[in-house]
Amino acid sequence: MHYFNKSLLMFFILVFTPIIVSGATISQAENLAQQCFICHGAKGEGAGKIPELRDLEKSDIVESMLGFKTGEESSTIMDRFAKAYSKKEIDLLADYFSKLK
């Protein structure tokens, strides 16, 4: 097969595979939330002293995350996680967790 044809084939495979196999893809928010699941649970249910996220309003989650990010809200570990997220990523996470039931 000619190099150009191989390159074109690879382009279509890489671009259209996620569309074709859409059941296997996850949203950007869910991908970001994978790290949160370790402590807060896959449904945001929390455990023990780890707070539940699924019943919080989006604005409350954003406010807390931004507080952790700036140091205005104290924490043992959340400040380190929050500092790694952009404002857009915090909004995506807050929206994701606020919609969990």
UniProtKB/TrEMBL annotation:
PROSITE patterns xrefs: CYTC
Protein name in the entry: Cytochrome c domain-containing protein
Cite the entry's keywords alphabetically.
Answer: Electron transport, Heme, Iron, Metal-binding, Transport
Please list the residue ranges annotated as the Cytochrome c domain: 18-101
**Do the record's keywords include Magnesium?**
no
Please provide, alphabetically and separated by semicolons, the GO molecular function terms listed in this UniProt record.
Answer: electron transfer activity; heme binding; metal ion binding
InterPro entries, per database record: Cyt_c-like_dom, Cyt_c-like_dom_sf, Cytochrome_c_Oxidase_Subunit
